[in-house]
Amino acid sequence: MWTNIINASVQTLYMVFWSTLFSVLLGFIPAVVLTLTAPDGLKPNKAVYEILSFIVNVFRSFPFIILLVIIIPFTRFIAGKSIGTTAAIVPLTVSAIPYIARVFETSLRETDRGVIEAARSFGASDWQILFRVYIKESIPRMLNGIILLIISLIGYSAMAGTVGGGGLGDIAIRYGYQAYNTEYLIYCSIILIVFVQLIQMAGNYIFRKLS
Asked: What are phi and psi of 83, to 5 degrees?
């Protein structure tokens, strides 16, 4: 039993790590565009902002289990297969990109306007303001967003396991629920709780250091 649980735990961490990395990298781009083109941004553009905001909202509206099924052809195209731990990274990433994009946008737009105007008065260019003011001032807030993303992805990874994605969710369903072995359900649940607590504690510690 413990061999299965340990392997499943490694698979869960594998899915969460890569989906977090990809979604943060890919979600940062629309977040910056939304921030720059917002009505109070450095480059206001209502058309670009409204279209991109609509796209982000549409993808955020899909429940993960439905998105998991809808993008099976895309998953097969990217990963070469539609089931398995590696394949599960694709829907996890797709579901996380709009979420983290909106979180990053909110973090960036909460930057003190006084600091932005001060940088502008010293002759800073828009790109300098973006990188040295917006992003620099928002790092602690964005870190909080990443921690919340990781915790959400842990739950989503368990859901992906119910449809062949592997991980603790897969073990809990196959060996716990379907085989009527409550020990699997209990141990898998405890491990997921421990993961979440450790990640939140680490996030809080780093946030205090950065702040």
From this structure: -130, 160
Q: Of 65-74, 167-176, 187-196, which range is least confident? A: 167-176
Question: Which residue ranges form the domains of the chain, and what is each CATH number?
Answer: 2-210 (1.10.3720.10)
**pLDDT value at residue 52:** 94
Task: Name the residue with tokens 């990433």.
Answer: 93
pTM assigned to the model: 0.87
Give the contacts of 168 (CB within 8 A, at least 6 positions apart).
5, 8, 9, 11, 12, 157, 158, 161, 188, 191, 192
> H or E segment at 24?
helix 2-37
Segment 107-162, tens digit of pLDDT: 998 888 888 888 888 888 888 888 888 888 889 899 999 999 999 998 888 888 76
Which residue carries 């905001």 as its tokens?
A: 53
What pLDDT was estimated at residue 110? 87
**Residue owning tokens 């549409």:** 58
Q: How far is 140 from 138, CA to CA, in rounded Å?
A: 6
**Other beta carbons within 10 Å of 21:** 12
**Neighbour-count burial of 62, counting CB atoms closer than 10 A to its CB (0-12 exposed, 13-18 middle, 19+ buried):** middle
Query: Of the candidates 97, 210, 96, which has an alpha carbon nearest to the alpha carbon of residue 153?
Result: 96
- Which letter does DSSP use for residue 43 in this model? S
